[in-house]
Hints:
There is one protein chain. It is built from 14 helices and 2 strands, in the order H-H-E-E-H-H-H-H-H-H-H-H-H-H-H-H. It is mainly α. It has a single domain (75-308), classed as MetI-like fold. 26% of the residues are buried. The chain crosses the membrane at residues 29-56, 94-116, 123-148, 178-199, 230-250, 291-310.
Amino acid sequence: MTEETARRALVPVAAERVRPRGRPLRSRAAPYALVAPFFLLFAAFGLFPLAATAWLSFFRVDLTAPEARQWAGAHNYARLLGDEFFWNALSNTVLIGLLATVPQLLLALGVAHLLAARLRGRLFFRVAALAPYATSVAAATLVFALFYGRDQGMVNWALGVVGLSPVDWQNGPWASKFAVASIVLWRWTGYNALIYLAAMGTVPPELYEAAALDGAGRWRRFWHVTLPGLRPALAFTGAVSAIGAVQLFGEPLLFSSGAGASGGADHQYQTLGLYLYEQGWVNLHLGRAAALAWAMLLLLVAGFGLVRLVRGGRGRGAR
């Protein structure tokens, strides 16, 4: 092959390399067109309600006459600072959240560890662990309300068998919080256990083999291999549980018949979600309810920011 023939043979290759410099406009816009429906729906059902609620929180608005609004400025927010029922609902939310979340995540971790073992009928046990999550909130709460009944409930019957006095689970200040927290604990433990179980499957088995060769027992392997591999799952479930605790609504609403949004005769288990519902749909003060909704969001943001700040400080201290 002569030099001229080789040069002519290389010309199409060079031209083909230079040609795809600019793609057609249609191919460049295709990805944006595919994701556009999500952003349109998110703007319509996510951003717009947030913005509308924020704007409504600066007005005095009655549910029966939403068009007759009056500008109130920051009055609705300032009112929350001096509202004893708001602080009561906040303390109840924190206490019920702690009573439900901490044991829930610990139990879920133990259940996941058991489900990870090679047992017969593992699929059945995994489905059974998820069954409480699939149960209706109303059905589960009504069953637990009967379970904690003062006169004919099974819990007080069991206490009587061992010689203890019955407990008024629906009216006691601490007993009612524990009872509501137990409903949340029962419903969400299996769900979190399956998340941990899936995360355990991503831990490389070589780490367990290396730890076993180093003489680490089952507990040390779980503490030094499994738990570090579960950090993303632990962070996710902790964040979701915190959000769920702030939004807790169905369980305390249905726990006691006749209590409604008040959360008991003395508001002993009224959560922020119940208090928001009471302000907006019982007392008909939409402006106050909107301010409370944004206060709940700001509390969550502040809580997550504080956790991130503490973790960042620990990381810098470890260096």
